Amino acid sequence: MTFAAPQAGGNSIPTSTPLLWERYAAFERPILGALALTIFLLFWEGVARGWWADLLHPILGSSADALRVRPIFLASPSTIAMSAYSMLFETGELWPHLGLSAFEFVSALAIAVTLGVPFGLIVGRYQYLSYAVEPLLAALNATPQIALLPLVVLWMGTGVAARVFIIALLMIVPIVISAHAAVRTIDARLLRLARSFSASEAQVFKTIILPASLPYLLAGLRLAIGRGMIGIVVGEVYGSAVGIGVMINRAGSTFKTDRVFVGVFTIVIAGLLLSELVRRLERRVGVWRESAVDVQ
Questions:
Q1: Rounded Cα distance, 108 and 117, in Å
Q2: What does DSSP assign to residue 90?
Q3: 126 falls within a domain
Q4: Is 197 within the bounds of a domain?
Q5: Could you tell me the CA-to-CA distances from 52 to 32, 98, 122, 144 in Å, in that order?
């Protein structure tokens, strides 16, 4: 370690301390997140394996046995990791479930974005249409779309199309609401200026409405991702033979909690990765908007 020249009183101040602090500050978010996750996993492992019960038994006596959890109710993180490794690289049984669920999610996302974004922008653009559609959007947003699943099964059966439909239905609501709200917050002076230059509606949408709405659309997309993950699990319970939701349901009915957590963590990790991707896009859009404002 490099030291600076001695100060008054004979003390030396390490010059590397500010550098270490700067490096920590640059990675503070992932460091603290990883630390919290490590502590949580260690606590979980201790509960599942009875470490804390053994540790507290000399103090609490037989009362410490209440901290023991049978493996049938809670699998340890190490057991879950071994099950995941086996299902991925030894038996390969997780891949068909993952493939079908990914196909359903991507298809539903494409439908929700393709239909939801234009519909929300158009509804937000025209005032009278907005007045007519707003109550329907509010009612649909307040309605748990999962409750419509039995009707969807009656209408469309139990095939892939029905599951894609229910996932898309869950995802399209936040996208439409975000697009609608985005248009309503655009500065009216920009729209009047565009009309004064005889801009067509297509040009207004392309050059003003869509760029200004992009941050709101990405925020709605993050919400839609979370809803879509719920739709995967719930939708596959009805009649599907393959899928992450089916795997979770079957493992739970046979008390294989390690496989249940493998399915749950698969959904969680996929959702986190997609949300992080959208968050990074939001950052880029934010920088682009700030640059555009500075130029103006």
A1: 14
A2: I
A3: yes
A4: yes
A5: 24, 35, 58, 40
Last residue within a domain, chosen from 69, 90, 109: 69
What is the domain range of residue 37?
A: 16-69
pLDDT per residue rounded down to tens, the chain (296 residues): 444 545 555 555 455 667 777 777 777 788 888 899 899 989 988 888 888 777 877 777 777 777 777 778 888 899 999 999 999 998 888 999 999 999 999 999 999 999 999 998 888 888 888 888 888 888 888 877 777 788 887 888 778 888 899 899 899 999 999 988 888 887 777 777 777 777 777 777 877 888 888 888 888 899 899 889 888 888 887 767 788 888 988 888 888 889 999 999 999 999 889 988 888 887 777 655 554 444 44
| Tokens 């393959």 -> residue | 242
Question: Residue 66 has which token pair?
Answer: 């209440």
d(CA 167, CA 104): 8
- At 3, is the secondary structure helix, strand, or coil? strand
Task: Count how many domains the chain has.
Answer: 2
Which tokens hold the place of 82? 């071994």
- Residue 74 falls within a domain, yes or no? no
